[in-house]
Amino acid sequence: MRKPVIGILGNTFMTEVGMFNSIERAFVNSDYIESIQRNGGIPVMIPAFSVSEDPEDALSFCSGILIPGGEDIQPWYYGEEPLPEIGEIRPEIDEAYWKAGQYALEKRIPMLGICKGHQFLNVLMGGSLYQDLSLREQESIQHLQKRNRSYVTHKVEIVEGTRLADVLGSGSCQTNSMHHQAVKELGKGLKVSAYASDGVIEALEDEEGLITGIQWHPENLINSAPVMNKLFADFVNRCSDERLK
Catalytic: which of 154, 173, 202, 219? Predict the structure, then answer.
């Protein structure tokens, strides 16, 4: 059986002004590519522009879609105006994510969302976000670590009986953390699969195995915390089951 193709949604950035002036480039972080390739999938970057133009053409060959981290989500998607605490917003990226998510739901393509991708999946399913953790009623632990991304800095509690518990085991798990927003109201058809000690939702999933959201960055931990490879292996396996029967 051929390996499943995992489409990784791309972002863009402007190069610094230099000999060839500043130009826009499309990219995905190398750690996402390595995490998928090491665990049995074929990683392919999907440019945001291509998804916005025609999701069918851009994504029809994908067995799964990885929605990566990035800037804050435009709060209009969950019915709010931007508050002063919100960070940078990229409307063109959000549009591509939204079209990709709707296409994946229609075609029943498994999705793995990481950090912003985790938050996006909740919004896609009708949920909302805290635009900044300072807006929560209860005090938060440090979720935007000041250390190397490969370091683990706080614990999450994985909920027994969830698919995530089947993959990583239930109970306490150490993770890294690089976010200032978080899931607020849970989206329709989703359940929480991990919490931080302060109650922040750190992972979510649906019942069918088509949606998995992870708030931390497991792609940066595949060497320093090798158990995180199991997340990507499980995702690749589910893509094989759904699309390559």
Answer: 219
